[in-house]
Amino acid sequence: MRQKDKMTNKELIAKAIEFAKPYYQLPHRINGHHSWIHIQEGFSLYEKYFKGDLSKECELSFYLAWIFHDAIYIGSSSSNEEESEKLFTLFCAKHKTDITEELKGYVSGLILCTKTHSPLNSENTEIKKTSKILNDIDQAYLGYDFVNFMRKRSLVRNDYLMYSDKEYKEGTIIFCYQYLTQDFTFFTEKFQNLFQNNVFLNLNKYLDNLQKNRD
Predict the structure, then answer these.
(1) CA angle at residue 178 from 175 to 183, to 5 degrees?
(2) Closest CA to 16 of 57, 63, 51, 72
(3) In a 10 Å sphere around its CB, with 0-12 CB exposed, 13-18 middle and 19+ buried, how is residue 57 labelled?
(4) pTM of the model
(5) For the purposes of burial, counting CB atoms within 10 Å of the CB of 94, is it exposed (0-12), middle (13-18) or buried (19 or more)?
(6) Tell me: the pLDDT tens digits for 104-113?
(7) CA 125 to CA 119: how far, in whole Å?
(8) What are the CA-CA distances from residue 66 to residues 1, 21, 117, 172, 204 (Å)?
(9) What angle, 0 to 180 degrees and rounded to 10, lies between the N-to-C axes of helices 80-94 and 9-24?
């Protein structure tokens, strides 16, 4: 029988949602891509494509990292992931009996690796695998059909309203080139097979439209 003061994974995830969700629902965020809807969609993608692929510990690490990875998001900031990780640390302080230092370290690393969308360079193969799944889910929309890709891009624009249309367009062109010069976007075989080809099709079409209307 588990100790009464020790939460189950499900209970801890619920507490994490209760703690982090209000940050995603701030007025300046509700119409952007990095809103709570993004987190809900990530839950659905995990359940559909990766449920059962991770150990219970790594699945808990995934859920906690996913809940917190965009908890702090300001379009003009270059430290969103670091600030989100600090928020997770505050959550850990409230639940010391439920979050071990090892788990805290895993989740912090996962949150921070979404800054560059690169898998963790970890000797723990399960956590490395978890980081691949996390980053793939975070970038999944890039491989959706073009209509839904563009719908997501319009939400992303709402995250960067502090920039003029011209500034945003120039930044987006750089964004497209960065992805198009990569050999691949996704790290899991499932998403490579499902979405990788669409990434190149979407970004090339999007980039062509941007450059036609550059002035």
Answers:
(1) 140
(2) 63
(3) middle
(4) 0.95
(5) exposed
(6) 999 999 999 9
(7) 11
(8) 29, 12, 13, 25, 29
(9) 130
- Give φ, ψ of 39 to 5 degrees: -70, -45
Paired tokens of 135: 């980053």
Which pLDDT belongs to residue 88? 98
Query: How remote is the C-alpha of 168 from its chain's centroid?
Result: 21
Scan for tokens 């080809």, then name that residue. Answer: 197
Amino acid occupying residue 165: D
3-state SS record for the chain: CCCCCCCCHHHHHHHHHHHHHHHHCCCCCCCCCCCHHHHHHHHHHHHHHCCCCCCHHHHHHHHHHHHHCCCCCCCCCCCHHHHHHHHHHHHHHHCCCCCCHHHHHHHHHHHHHCCCCCCCCCCCHHHHHHHHHHHHHHCHHHHCCHHHHHHHHHHHHHHCCCCCHHHHHHHHHHHHHHHHCCCCCCCCHHHHHHHHHHHHHHHHHHHHHHHHCCC
Q: Is the pLDDT of residue 148 over 50?
A: yes
Asked whether the predicted pLDDT for residue 158 surpasses 70, the reply is: yes
Place of tokens 């050999």: 183
- Token digits for 138? 């975070």
